[in-house]
């Protein structure tokens, strides 16, 4: 059914008849949806509940084999067309005019096509995740959360705002991830075109960036956003779930993570500051320097890294390439989590059997097993609190906690005593 659906989508792009295009597109999406949900039930619904990692490194699709490379090439090609050659997607866009007119009051464009496919992917693969992780209450609620926020706040609500002739706004994205929301031109646009609602949008973006984010991260770590709300994280946790084991756990990969993500975070801070300084001087202080920097940032980071590489390389580098190496929001949240938060993953080294399940499922490249063996709490800036290490552990060694900051970096003396006794 999935193969037939993909064929129907190809026929949509190849057929010049507008009537047949609509039929092909909706038939394709229907077949892919039914096939994905049916396959998920056949694969996971009929088995006993639990994380099953058998044959992950033997299948071509999940071990960087030929199927994975073909999948990565298709995804990368789609993003290249989406960002720079949208005219080649026109026959996929036009059949969505009816849905777009009903939701947004205007014809579809390539971004509405992308939003539709993106939301559908999260819903379908979210259904797969619900079957796969149904034994874990935490994973079920977390999956339902990302499905809800993507569908309601990142797809339906922005469309309704346009329908009522208000500025399109995504309430689940804010600076520094949605960097434009605090750029002077964007702020002025919201204030001029949104009236009272525009004022609230600007207030919401600023409040979420500088007040709510530190407070929520202090209590819950970066998981409140990266694993429960963010659309990028939502796609990674659902559509990217089959590839989480591909995340590189080496120290060299960690070094590249630090070399990339924090300079990117610093760059967007500098660009935002330059734009506001220039704006306050009547655009005469720096000329076009800030605008040029913002355009290059949008091209290299906002499009090439977050889109083409961030999703296109799922089958090769794992499902959190963007979140791990490029997302400025992840860098911001990570700094708060490591130095300011109550969140940690506690470990009980006395019960660890060194099976490696926890490290295998960590999408952020953390070698969790090394912490678990020593009974040390895991406090890493990169950890998104997905909880998969705890879910996959057969011994209950790992627990996600929002504990007091006192003794946060120290393991339990009892745990260390047990570990030493077993070792001796």
Overview in brief:
Keywords: 4Fe-4S, Electron transport, Iron, Iron-sulfur, Membrane, Metal-binding, Transmembrane, Transmembrane helix, Transport. The chain is mostly helical and 424 residues long.
Describe, in plain words, how this protein is organized in 3D.
Keywords: 4Fe-4S, Electron transport, Iron, Iron-sulfur, Membrane, Metal-binding, Transmembrane, Transmembrane helix, Transport. InterPro entries: 4Fe4S_Fe-S-bd, 4Fe4S_Fe_S_CS, Electron_Trans/Redox. This protein has 424 residues and is an all-alpha fold. Among the domains are: 212 residues, no CATH class; 80 residues, Alpha-Beta Plaits (2-Layer Sandwich), CATH 3.30.70. Helix content is 65%, strand content 2%. The longest helix has 37 residues. The relative contact order is 0.10.
